[in-house]
Amino acid sequence: MKVLLLFTGGTISMVRDPKSGALHPADMQVFQSFVPELFAGEIQVDMFPFDPLIDSSNVNPENWAKMAHVVYDNYEKYDGFVILHGTDTMSYSASALSFMLHNLTKPVVFTGSQLPVGVLRSDAKENLLTAIEIAAAKDDMGNAMVPEVTIFMDDELYRGNRTTKRNAEHFSAFKSYNYPALARAGVRITYNKQFIAQPNLQEELHLRDKTDCNVAVLKLFPGITESIVKSILSTPGLRGVVLETYGAGNAPSCDWLYQHLRDAVERGIIIVNKTQCNTGSVDMGQYAVSLPLLKAGVISGYDITTEALLTKMMYLLGENPTDNELVKRMLQTPLCGELTKR
């Protein structure tokens, strides 16, 4: 079994300078010296280092495309892929790759750590070794156990486009609020097979790496002013907006808010209603305060995460630059398990 390890950067790749005490990226030899088990088992692990390494706060769609291309270009050579990545934007990257790698039949496992690999109490080694094992795992038929883009951290494996970073201090950095864990690692790795996607094994992998970054997030809050809303919706070149609303998709009953949203939709801007709650789904029309959004032409994002909705919007607008109606339909259609329609 062979796994390709993409070394993109992040805390997991940091080591502390013994003199200054400052953290800096480790080179491949230093990193390998901290995890010798990685290269001593039955699984052959090859490394693909990004140069330069990327702080996850600087990750952008070009980096997503590069990650996707590395997987695509090496797809036939390996049984699975592990991507070392900083945790701050890992959910965005995992979501993006889930859309870019269409009909994935092999595992692509993102992992990272809250402490650098060289620190005594680091969670890096356990996360990495388990991610490698998951990436190489096969079922009784010889097919990949988890043929999805996933995130593994602190003993749990989640569908990548269902995750949100929830904690900056604890090892359990991520949570999938609206979809169950795909696997849990203890003495053994227990896979929840009923929740794992099953691809069409007869269809080839397709790479779709075009994106359009002319999108924005508009988060409603008590006291939000008309000038703020107007400013965002009047951004030159704007094509899509994630509208973060209250509860089940509710918004203030302001005539000016309805008017600006309706005008934006009429100008061709796609606006998707996303609840600010971690758990639950948008249900437009359940309460009277959400009815104006429907009338304005805002569409429901159901239970999708902000990370998945933003990257999906970028992907769909990039792939379909002139067909807004198709983009709207696809935004409300599960493409790779990123949402559940109610």
SSE layout and pairings?
Layout: E1 2-7, E2 14-16, E3 23-25, H1 28-34, E4 44-49, H2 61-73, E5 80-84, H3 90-100, E6 101-102, E7 108-111, H4 124-136, E8 149-153, E9 156-159, E10 164-165, E11 174-175, E12 183-185, E13 189-191, E14 206-207, E15 215-219, H5 226-233, E16 240-245, H6 255-266, E17 270-275, H7 291-296, E18 299-300, H8 306-319, H9 324-331
Helix pairs in contact: 2-3, 3-8, 5-6, 8-9
Question: What is the spatial order of strands in the main beta sheet?
Answer: 4-1-5-7-8-9-12-13
Helix/strand order, N-terminal first: EEEHEHEHEEHEEEEEEEEHEHEHEHH
Task: Give unreliable regions as ranges.
Answer: none
Shape label: globular
Mean pLDDT: 90
Q: How many distinct helices?
A: 9
Brief account:
This protein is α/β, with parallel strands linked by helices and 342 residues long.
Question: Can you tag this structure with a few keywords?
Answer:
342 residues, eight-stranded mixed β-sheet, four-stranded parallel β-sheet, 27% helix
Describe this entry's structure for a reader.
There is one protein chain. The protein has 9 helices and 18 strands. Helix 8 packs antiparallel against helix 9. It has helices spanning 28-34, 61-73, 90-100, 124-136, 226-233, 255-266, 291-296, 306-319, 324-331; strands at residues 2-7, 14-16, 23-25, 44-49, 80-84, 101-102, 108-111, 149-153, 156-159, 164-165, 174-175, 183-185, 189-191, 206-207, 215-219, 240-245, 270-275, 299-300. Strand 16, helix 6 and strand 17 (270-275) form a beta-alpha-beta unit. The protein has an 8-stranded mixed β-sheet with strand order 4-1-5-7-8-9-12-13, sandwiched between helices. It has a 4-stranded parallel β-sheet with strand order 15-16-17-18, with helices on both faces. Helices cover 27% and strands 20% of the residues. The model has no long low-confidence stretch (mean pLDDT 90).
